[in-house]
Amino acid sequence: MILNALNASKRPFAGYAEAKVVDIIPVERERYAQARFRNRQAAVFEFFADGKLIKSVDTEDTYPCPYQINQRVRLSYDPENPQNCRVIGKEQFHILAVVLNVLGVILVLGGCLLFLRYALRYHL
């Protein structure tokens, strides 16, 4: 719970949504003199913000688009202007929370096994 709160505080915007990649379009780069390709590939995200369907184009400058059509991604968006959004990657605290949960389950199961081993030594 604490780690989830830390993750939320590190998001660039207050809004949070799960979006779907509906299209991948070519977009001309603003500065392509140093780039290898003149165009870049941008994903078009579709998500709901305050009950309204929003379509937004990815602002990351990548040529092979890292997303696939129909892929689901998590976004952080500005509630005042939902078109302004950023993809949230795997948050480091989320990964740490999962690791700690798995470690806790392993320790509890190990403790149960040790207790059963100890209890089976004594015959009543």
What does this structure look like?
This protein is an alpha+beta fold. Helices cover 29% and strands 33% of the residues. It contains two helices and five strands; from the N terminus they run H-E-E-E-E-E-H. A five-stranded antiparallel sheet has the order 3-2-1-4-5, with no helix packed on it. Strand 4 and strand 5 form a beta hairpin. Helix 1 packs antiparallel against helix 2. It starts with a helix and ends in a 5-residue tail after the last helix.
Which runs of at least 5 residues are low in confidence (pLDDT < 50)?
none
Number of helix segments? 2
Q: Which overall shape is indicated by the principal axes computed on the Cα atoms?
A: elongated
Give me the secondary-structure category. alpha+beta
What is the rounded Rg?
23 Å
Strand runs, count = 5
Strand content: 25-35%
Largest beta sheet, briefly? 5 strands, antiparallel
- Mean pLDDT over the residues: 80
By oligomeric state, this entry counts as single chain
Helix content: 25-40%
Q: Strand-and-helix sequence, N→C?
A: HEEEEEH
**Which strand order do you get reading across the main beta sheet?**
3-2-1-4-5
Brief summary of the model shown:
The chain is an alpha+beta fold and 124 residues long. The protein has helices spanning 2-9, 92-119; strands at residues 15-28, 39-49, 52-57, 72-77, 85-88.
Supply database-style keywords:
124 residues; alpha+beta; five-stranded antiparallel sheet; 5 strands; 29% helix
Question: Which secondary structure elements does this structure contain, and how are they paired or packed?
Answer:
Layout (H helix, E strand, L loop, with lengths): L1 H8 L5 E14 L10 E11 L2 E6 L14 E6 L7 E4 L3 H28 L5
Helix pairs in contact: 1-2
